[in-house]
Amino acid sequence: MKKAIGIDLGGTNVRAALVGSDGSVIRRLKEPTTENVFDTLRAMVKELSKEGVEGIGVGAAGLVDKKQGRVILSPNIPSITGKGFDEIGDGLKVYLENDANAAALGEMWLGAGRDFESFVLMTLGTGIGGGFIHRGRLLNVSAEVGHMSVEQAGRKCMCGGSGCLELYASARAITEAVTKAIEGGAESILTQGNIYKLTPEDIYKAAFEGDNLARESLREAGRYLGIGIANLINIMSPDAVVLAGGLTGAWDLYIKEAIKEAQKRAFKSLFDRASIIQASLNDDAGVLGAAYLVFHGEESYIC
After folding, report:
1. Which of 122, 149, 189, 290 is deepest in the core (most CB within 10 A)?
2. Residue 109: how many other CB atoms lie within 10 Å
3. How far apart are the first and last CA of the chain?
4. Please, are residues 98 and 218 in contact by the beta-carbon 8 Å criterion?
5. Could you tell me the domains of the chain?
6. How many CB atoms lie within 10 A of CB 141?
7. Are the C-beta atoms of residues 289 and 109 closer than 8 Å to each other?
8. Rounded to 10 degrees, what is the CA torsion of 61, 63, 65, 70?
9. The whole model's pTM is what?
10. For residue 277, what are the contacts with CB-CB under 8 A and spacing of at least 6?
């Protein structure tokens, strides 16, 4: 059985895995994303390549140039902007892709996307990413769905634009909104801890316990997410919208509010045909999709 290394380079963590050509995950590694991320990547590749691999697939958060093997812009990991990834291969071929595109390939190969001819994947985490699958192949586009503008005169984004979806609906956006509200005097059970170390899990737990600030913050973020989902349904007319990432754990508030908002805004016929479902591979989607690139190369894409 052939083997490959799949790497998922996100804004919070770097995940790497040794993957078999049958989709089996033989070994996993995980490290925090730091300024010295290339040192981390080289160490992971050295450890996982001991058994012999065909190549390395990397899904990196940001806009990527696949032919040149470099990241053009990564708003959430500035240290990799402009950097190439061939150096981590130590002679092995490196396939570079956007992290959400890689996750879409993973879900298509072994996850929730297997039953659909076409689907849109949205990753809901530190930022918001996307990937478009059409007839079993990845559309060769940037799919930076987190940077669609949902507010005409909205907040300034690190990408250079303003009003971007991820400024209103991502994990970072939710924690920042709650922290700012508490600083402004809003009442919440979340004031019992260090408000500058809040996580989305803390906020969802507080919402589950009836905290009004937490509940409304999640609903507000969900409404913005719903705008984004409606836009994608109207543009892509997918069979499904597959939602991945840690924020899907707040399905009962955040996602349900998004679905409600999307239903208001999308064309009815297009909304009714699109299943909105949760991804099934969890943290493995990105590494599996990155490994898929090694095994299938250019056959992974439709241009």
Report:
1. 290
2. 20
3. 30
4. no
5. 3-106+283-302 (3.30.420.40), 114-280 (3.30.420.40)
6. 14
7. yes
8. -50
9. 0.92
10. 112, 240, 241, 242, 243
